[in-house]
Structure formats: structure tokens, C-alpha cells
Amino acid sequence: MREEYVEAVLAVVDLVPAGSVLAYGDVAELLGAGGPRQVGAVMSRHGGQTAWWRILKASGGAPEGHEAPALGHYVDEGTPLRRDQHGGWRVDMPQARWTPSDEELEAVEAITEALDRRLHGPEGPGRELSEPGSGMDP
DNA sequence: ATTCTGACTTGCT
DNA sequence: AAGCAAGCCAGAA
């Protein structure tokens, strides 16, 4: 994926306050680009330098393969958790899910805007130039 | 072009 | 509540 997308995702992650979380799909939706799997891919490769535990599955489960350290952070930050039987736990999504304030929403918008600009280029995506040799004439 | 894979989601048993 | 299938989006082989 493009480097610009990676930076946009990480920027959003940095916006999430301690004690709150966002699902992969939520980030994708805020960004208006890519899907849950793309966000997951970004976190997998570049999440190390961020508060990666604040981005997780929509079901409330911690990032695949990182449940132990994630739990430590959740306890630290007082993230709402729910116990389930057999000693399992999961983040209480309805409570923990981050809902951006107006200002925060503005910041998010700034990010998506920058992303669109950098992704589609300073020129609009609506540009219709036909490249030489791209003709599909029979 | 086709197929496989993955820090995902949702809908249906 | 838990398991399964199908969708979904991009990158890699």
C-alpha cells in the first residue's frame, strides 16, 4: 500500500486517547479509504511505533497474537473490559469505542483530506488523458 | 490474468 | 456463545 496511506492510518491512531479504542473497520471508515484488512496490514507492519493496542477487532478481541501485552495496556489505561467465562476477556466495545469530539473530528478530516490530496495528487482524479499506446482499438 | 493470504466483518447456523 | 461461510481490499507469487 502507499506510504501516504500508512501515515494517515498512524496519524489517526495517534488521535485515539488512552482508555479508548477503535476497530480496524472504524479507522478505515474514518479514513474513507481501504478496508479493515488494509488497516490491519498497516498495523502489522508499522504498528510498533504507535499505541497499536488501541486498534482492535470489532468483536473486542485484541490484535491477533498480541493479546497478553494488549491486556496489560488496557488495565493500565482503564479501558472498559468484559470478562467472559473460562477466564477470557474482551474490550467492552460499546463503552470503549472512541467517539471523536468536534475538534477531533476536524483533525480526522484534515488527515483524510491530506490523504486524498497526496493519493490522487494535486490534480483531481477526474483527469481524463489518454496515454499513447493505451488504445484498445481492434 | 489467476490464486493465495492476511493484526478484518457480518450474517447465518 | 461459538463456529463457519462469504465478502471485502490490496499486495505478493
Describe the fold and architecture.
The chain is built from six helices and four strands, in the order αβααβαββαα. It starts with a helix and ends in an 18-residue tail after the last helix. Strands 1-2 form a two-stranded parallel sheet. The chain has one domain (3-120): Arc Repressor Mutant, subunit A, CATH 1.10.10. The protein is mainly α and 138 residues long. The structure holds a DNA duplex (13 and 13 nucleotides).
Q: Any idea what the CATH architecture is?
A: Orthogonal Bundle
Order of adjacent strands in the largest pleated sheet: 1-2
Per CATH, the superfamily is Winged helix-like DNA-binding domain superfamily/Winged helix DNA-binding domain
Portion in helices: 40-55%
Total strands: the figure is 4
The Cα radius of gyration reads: 18 Å
CATH top level is Mainly Alpha
**Quick one: overall form?**
elongated
Q: Give the helix/strand class.
A: mainly alpha
Q: Which terms summarize this structure?
A:
Arc Repressor Mutant, subunit A, two-stranded antiparallel ribbon, 4 strands, mainly alpha, DNA-binding, single chain, elongated, two-stranded parallel sheet
Chart the SSEs and their pairings:
Layout: H1 3-15, E1 22-23, H2 24-31, H3 36-46, E2 55-56, H4 67-77, E3 81-83, E4 89-91, H5 93-96, H6 102-120
Parallel strand pairs: 1-2
Antiparallel strand pairs: 3-4
Helix pairs in contact: 1-3, 1-6, 2-3
The protein binds a DNA duplex (13 and 13 nucleotides) through helix 2, helix 3 and strand 2.
Short characterization:
This protein has 138 residues and is mainly α.
